[in-house]
Amino acid sequence: MADGYLRDPQTLAINPSLAIKAECRRRILGIMSEDEQRNTLATGQAAMMEYGTDPAAWPPQLQQRQGVAMAAWVEIERLRSRSNEIEAMEPLPPDVSDAALWAVEGG
């Protein structure tokens, strides 16, 4: 697998930035697998081609699926942003898998 370097403990120890990216990826895949991401994109593309770009014009089942996908996307974007914030920390946190480090602020 091309991203195997993200799982190699020696590489992660040498490059903490990769450890942060790997943890972010792990959390993203916990929300939506790569297959689910691809299927969601394909479904959205097909819906736009058939019903137009306004999800309000889509059948209720597709609107519901779009709503679920958008909720997941909000969390994925939050994790990506948090990953960037963690990478910018000085000093870097010793345990990038600490749930508190990734938690929603104020939540």
Instruction: Determine Rg (CA atoms, Å).
Output: 17 Å
Q: N-to-C terminal Cα separation, in Å? A: 36 Å
Order of secondary-structure elements: HHHHH
Mean pLDDT: 89
Helix content: 55-70%
Strand content: under 5%
How many strand segments? 0
Count helical runs: 5
Task: Name the quaternary structure.
Answer: single chain
- Number of individual domains: 1
Q: What ranges have pLDDT less than 50 throughout 5 or more consecutive residues?
A: none
What general outline do the C-alpha atoms trace?
Answer: elongated
What's the topology here?
Blueprint: H1 9-14, H2 16-31, H3 34-51, H4 60-87, H5 99-102
Helix pairs in contact: 2-4, 3-4
Short recap of the structure:
Helices cover 67% and strands 0% of the residues.
What does the model show?
There is one protein chain. The protein is mainly α and 107 residues long. The protein has one domain (4-100). It has helices at residues 9-14, 16-31, 34-51, 60-87, 99-102. It is elongated and about 50 Å long. The model has no long low-confidence stretch (mean pLDDT 89).
